[in-house]
Amino acid sequence: MSAPPATLSAEAAPARPPLLEVADLRVEFDTYGGTVQAVRGVSFSLERGKTLAIVGESGCGKSVTVQSIMGLIPMPPGRITRGIAKIDGQDMLRDQRIDGKDIRGRLVGMIFQDPMTSLNPTMTIGDQIAETLQVHAGHSHRRAFARAVELIDMTRIPEAAKRARQYPFEFSGGMLQRSMIAMSLACEPSVLIADEPTTALDVTIQAQILDLMADLQRDNGMAIVLITHDLGVVARMADDVLVMYAGEVVEHGGVDDVFYRSAHPYTLGLKAAMPSNRTDAAQELTPIDGSPPDLFAPPEGCGYFARCPHAMRACEATHPPAFAIAGGHDARCWLHHADCDRDAAQVYRR
What string of DSSP letters covers 243-296? Predict the structure, then answer.
C-alpha cells in the first residue's frame, strides 16, 4: 500500500521573519567641519523574546544607529543615506514612517540614558506616563492615569498611587529609571530599546533594573536592544552581541561566541581592558592605545588598523568584509582570510 499523501499540517511551518531587521544602514551628519559618516553599513536582526547587546566605545555609532531607526535624529543636519529598517515586516525608512506616532511608543519603546534630562520637571510622573497613553492609544486622562499607576506598581515602585502624583525631583535615581521603563512599556511595544539603562546607578540598583527588564521581557515576550559599555551587563542579559567600532559592525555573534571565542582584535582589546573577578592570579589591565579614526574621512582599509597589534599592510589599503567564523558568528578582520598566516601577521606589520 502506498503511503498517504502528506498533509499540510505535516509540512514544516515557514520560518517567521525577524521582528527587527536592519540592513546596510548609513547615517551622516553635515557639520561646519564637513560630513561625519557616523554609521557605515550596519546590519543586524532580532527575534521576538531575544536580547541584542550593542557594545563599543563612545562615538562608535551605537546610539545613532537606534535613534535613526526611531526617527530621533534631527534632519538636517543628520540624514539616512541608505539602508533598510523593518519592524514586524514594515520598512520604516522606505515608507517614511519612522517619525510617526504609530511606530514610536506603539511598536518601539525606548529607555533613554539619563532619566533626569528625559523627564519633564514640571509634570508629575503619572501625568507623563499617562500622556503616552493619551497620544498613542487614545485613552482619556482618567483611564490613562489609572493605567500609569498600574505601570508604576509593575516596575516595583512602592506606594504607586502616591508616587504617580509626585514630580521627578522627588524620586531617586533608581526610581526615575523605573519610571522611564514604565513609560516605555505603556503601549506594550514589541521592541524595547534600552540606551545605557543602568548608567550612574549603584551596583545594587543596577541589578534590580536588569532583573526587572528580564522579568518584563519574559512576561511580555518583547525583544530588547541593549546599548551599553558594560560587558558584565552584556554577559548577564544578552543572547547576541554586536560589537561596533568607527561606525560599523566589526564582530557579531552569540554572547558565548563573542566572549569566549572572540574573533576581532578590538573585541579582544575590550576584554583585556575589563577587570576580572578571578582571585587565583593577578591581572594587568591593558588599555587600547590610540584614538578612533576621523569619521570626516574614514580610512580606506580597516578602521582599527592604527590601533591593532596584528595590523598588516592589507589592513591599511583594503576594507575587510565580514568573514564567517562559525554559525551566526562573523568578524570583519583580514586575519580570518583563508590565505592569511596568523603567525606571519607579526612579520608583515606596518
Answer: EEETTEEEEEEEHHHHHHS--SHHHHHHHHTS-----SS--------S----TT
Does residue 80 sit within a domain? Answer: no
Q: Cell 591593558, residue?
A: 286
> Is 149 a domain residue?
yes
Question: pTM of this prediction?
Answer: 0.84
State CA 214 to chain mean position distance.
15
Mean pLDDT for 223-241 is 88
Identify the residue with better confidence: 313 or 97. Answer: 313
- Domain holding 139, by residue range, is 117-188
Question: What residues does 227 pair with on adjacent strands?
Answer: 54, 195
Angle (CA) 81 251 71, round 5°: 30
182: buried, middle or exposed (CB in 10 Å: 19+, 13-18, 0-12)? buried
pLDDT tens-digit series, residues 238-271: 999 999 999 999 999 999 999 889 889 999 988 8
* Dist. CA 148–CA 125, nearest whole Å: 9
Give the whole-angstrom CA distance, residue 277 versus residue 16. 40
Domain membership of residue 151 (yes or no) is yes
Q: How confident is the model at residue 104 (pLDDT cuts 50, 70, 90)?
A: low
Q: Is the pLDDT of residue 350 over 70?
A: no
CB neighbour class for 48 (10 Å; exposed up to 12, middle 13-18, buried from 19): middle
Is cis: bond before 77, omega within 30 of 0?
A: yes
Instruction: Count how many residues are written for the chain.
Output: 350
The percent of the chain in helix, strand and coil, each rounded to the nearest 5, is 35, 20, 45
So what's the pLDDT on residue 200? Answer: 66
